[in-house]
Amino acid sequence: MLARTMTNNPGRCTPAAQYRALVQSLLSWFEGHARDLPWRRTLDPYAIWISEVMLQQTQVNTVIPYWRRWLRELPTVRSLASASLPKVLKLWEGLGYYTRASNLRQAARIIRRQFAGRFPRSFDDLLALPGIGRYTAGAICSIAFNQPAPILDGNVIRVLTRVFGIDGIPRQKKTNARLWGLAQDLVSQANRVRQPKERNCSRLNQALMELGAVVCTVRLPDCPRCPLRRRCLAFLGRRGDQFTNMGHRPPPTARRFVAFVVQERGRFLVRQRPAGIVNAHLWEFPNIEVSDARHSIEQLAREVIGPISNSGQPTIQIKHSMTRYRITLEVFRVEPRSTRKRASTNERWCALRDLRKLAFPSAHRKILSRLTEHRKH
C-alpha cells in the first residue's frame, strides 16, 4: 500500500528516492529557516529533555522563560534529583499538567540511582523512565545523540498526513502505526545522507516539528513557503488545509466551583491537594464544587470551613479550561464566626509573603494576585 502511494507521486520515483528527496529538502530548509530557540544551542540531553517535557501542551513563547529559569536553578540531573518537590512544583507553577514536573523529579532520582547520574543514551532505558513516552524518548535520542529514532507529535502528524495524503484518524491503531513507520523511514534515510553538516537525524526530526509549527499549520497552511509542496499530495490535490483528522472530540463539560478567602490576623487559610489527584501537592484556597444553585454561600462555607459571620463578599470570578472541562470559579471573602483551631495537616495559615512561596494552580494564583493587588492599594 505504501509503495503504491509513493509511486503514484510525480515522477514515479521509488519510495527510497522519494524519502531522499524529502529528507534533503527538509534538511536544507531547516538550515536556513529554523527559529533560534535556546534549547537548540545545546546538546545536553538533560536540557533537551526538560524542553521537550515543557513543550508538551504548551506554546514555545511560554516555555522559554520557564526553561531558562529551570536550568539556572536546577542545571543538572543530580540537582533535580536532590531538589524538594515543593521547589520543583514552584519552578513549574503556571505551566499546568503538574504531573509532568513530578515525573521529571522522579525520573531524575532513578537516573541518579541506576545510572550514577549520567543521562542514559538508550531508547529503551529512556522509555522506562516515568513521564517519558515513545515521542519524548525518540526526541532525546535523535536531538541529543543523533540516533535514528522517530518522533511523532501533533506537528509531525500534520506534516506527514498532508505530504502522504493519509485520511485515517491518527489515533487509530492502523493509521498511527503507518505514521510511525513513515517517521522511522525518514529519520533512517537522514542517517544515510552525507552532507557537510552532520547530525542529520537531529536536524531532520527538528525540521519536521518546525515545519508543522510555522508553515504546515492547522489552519491556513502557508503552502507557497513549504519546501515539500511539490511532493505533497495535499498540496497537489488542492487540499492543503485538509487531512489530519484527529477524530471526534466530545464538547467540553461545564463545572462550577466556589472558593473562600478566609483571613485571620493578617494570615490566609490555604490547603494542599492530596497525592493521586489532578494538581497533586499544590496549594489552593478552600473551595467546593457546586452542582446546582440551590445552596447559599453560607451553606457552602459551613461545609468547607465552618460557620461564618457574614454572607460572603464577592471578590472575583475566574473562568479557565482544563483538559475537557470549562471551569467557573467564584471567589468570596468570608469571616469565620469564631477563631478556628489550629489547621489540620493539609492546611496552613500564611501571611501574604509566605503564600507567594507556595505553588498554586493557575486559577488560585489569580486569587493570590488579586489579594496582592488589593494589599498594594
Overview of the structural elements:
This protein has 377 residues and is an alpha+beta fold. The chain folds into 2 domains: 2-236, Hypothetical protein, domain 2 (Endonuclease III, domain 1); 253-376, Nucleoside Triphosphate Pyrophosphohydrolase. The chain has 16 helices and 7 strands. The chain has helices spanning 2-7, 15-33, 45-54, 60-73, 77-82, 85-92, 99-114, 123-127, 134-145, 154-163, 173-192, 200-214, 233-236, 297-304, 352-355, 362-376, and strands at residues 253-264, 267-272, 283-284, 287-290, 313-322, 325-334, 347-350. Strands 1, 2, 3, 4, 5, 6 and 7 form a 7-stranded mixed sheet that branches. A hairpin with a 2-residue loop joins strand 1 (253-264) and strand 2.
Helix/strand layout:
Blueprint: H1 2-7, H2 15-33, H3 45-54, H4 60-73, H5 77-82, H6 85-92, H7 99-114, H8 123-127, H9 134-145, H10 154-163, H11 173-192, H12 200-214, H13 233-236, E1 253-264, E2 267-272, E3 283-284, E4 287-290, H14 297-304, E5 313-322, E6 325-334, E7 347-350, H15 352-355, H16 362-376
Parallel strand pairs: 1-6
Antiparallel strand pairs: 1-2, 1-4, 2-3, 2-7, 5-6
Helix pairs in contact: 2-11, 2-12, 3-4, 3-9, 9-12, 10-12, 11-12
